[in-house]
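Is it possible to get an amino acid sequence alongside its tokenized fold?
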Amino acid sequence: MQKAVSAVTRIVGWVLVSAFVLITACGGGSRAASATTPTSGGKTGAKPPLFSGAKAFTHLKKQVGFGYRIPGTSAHEACVKYIIAEMTPLCGSVNRDDFNVPLGSASVPLTNIIAVQNPSAGTRILLCAHYDTRPRADQDVYANRGKPIPGANDGASGVAVLIELARVFKALPPNVGIEYVFFDGEDYGATIDTMLLGSRYFAAELTSDEIASIKYGLLFDMVGEKDLTITAEQNSMASAPDVYADLVDTAKSLGYHNFSERNAVPIEDDHTPLINAGVKMVDIIGFDYPYWHTIQDTVDKCSAESLAIVGRTAEMVVRKEE
């Protein structure tokens, strides 16, 4: 995803449920064990996270197994159908939003997927990720630059987190509405002007009432890398510094130290069209990823543990709305 860094390149229970938590929510690896501690943002007696890194990792592998999820391909359509099939039993409504974006003399067919839990809630939180993969490995060696990327981290990881969050919020709903948006066309074009296509379209379609109903949004992008560091992102810090601070504090309370608090860089990503539309957004992104936009962005570079760190942190932050 050619998120252009403006100054840089890439302008990036409860006795009844405790047994369940210990067995299933710890699927993320060794560091994940501390996430079973019933704390949330330093509060005692809070419900421990249910997010399973192992379940999320299964979703990551499934997506990569379809092939290159480039708009207009059979692998892309297979991924669309997979996301819809997974989200339908977990949400009150799932909408496939097909649209076309003119790019020069061509018109690119794209599909955003929007799913909602507790749609009658007056306040909702937006959880987003993109599922498409880049048609060209422009950060690889010259011989590989015309090849598509597998998108294990850049694409599949964020989607995996969203699907697993939908499962845990279905099992134990928070007291807010949750809107999941799977963006298309984030990585399509050669320049930033021909990228972020699904989020630009979604943001332009939001009404003033819809914008007012969104307390904040979280974008998940490149969150599966084994050696995970979440980059402090400048646009997010300007838009929702309180939300990012809560993510950092919550992660620490769970025993994680993967969220950077220093040296924020500005990254153009799917959150920026939403920020421009008036939505508070945080880009949860691990931009320091050596396989970004290369053909080496494969499943073996990712881990269930990293997905668990991000997913459990996000779950506990959302649950604070209770």
In short: Confidence is low (pLDDT under 50) at residues 1-44.
